[in-house]
Request: fold
Amino acid sequence: MSAPAPRFHPPQQSRSVETLGRILDAAERVLEEKSFSEATLAEIMERAGVTVGAFYRRFPDKDALLHHLDERFFAQMRDLADELLSPARWDGAPLSRVIAQLAAVAVPVYRHRRGLLRTLFIRARSDTKIQESSRELHGRLLEHLRVLAEARREEIGHPNPVAAVALGFRLFMGGLRECVIFGEVWPSDTGLTDEEFAHELARAYLGYLGITTPVHIPRHDSDQPS
Reply:
């Protein structure tokens, strides 16, 4: 799968690259505390150690900053997806182990970057650039899963494996989003640790696929198949 063309041209000089990184990091920290509409450029630039005037020399407006954040997150997750779901990585491993590792990685990522993701999910409803990023990333993840599942089709008990992998992935991502990003809109907390939640999320996906193999959730600090 070829990498999509970038939607903006990052700065080339090392000093400008460093400044852009500070601005984006500062914006993510602010988004951990408040919504994008509540966040002001002044407080983001203060945390970044950059003047508002310097911001406007790099960005036409505040929305452009969000698009840079989206692009950076998309690039990071694209690389993570390619590494995590590479067929060579899972040679000989059952699909249950693949899904378990996906859950074990996804839950901490969503938790750690909740503020940014919350902003991106909300803005994706109306912002076509962010919609495009989301479609591309979800499409990339799903295509990797389809390849891995096709090589393990005999493990899947669902009568329509192809459709089940796709719909199950939507259910998986929806559960992840609602429980981690928008959990406060539900009546009560699940009471699960992130590791326990990852286990249950993997079980739900695998159960829908008709896979009864016990789920083993690897430790967060290991990215190797066990």
Notes: Residues 61 and 220 are 38 Å apart (CA to CA). Residues 1-9, 220-226 have pLDDT under 50 and may be disordered. DSSP finds nine helices and no strands in the chain. The domain at 10-59 is CATH 1.10.10.60 (Arc Repressor Mutant, subunit A).
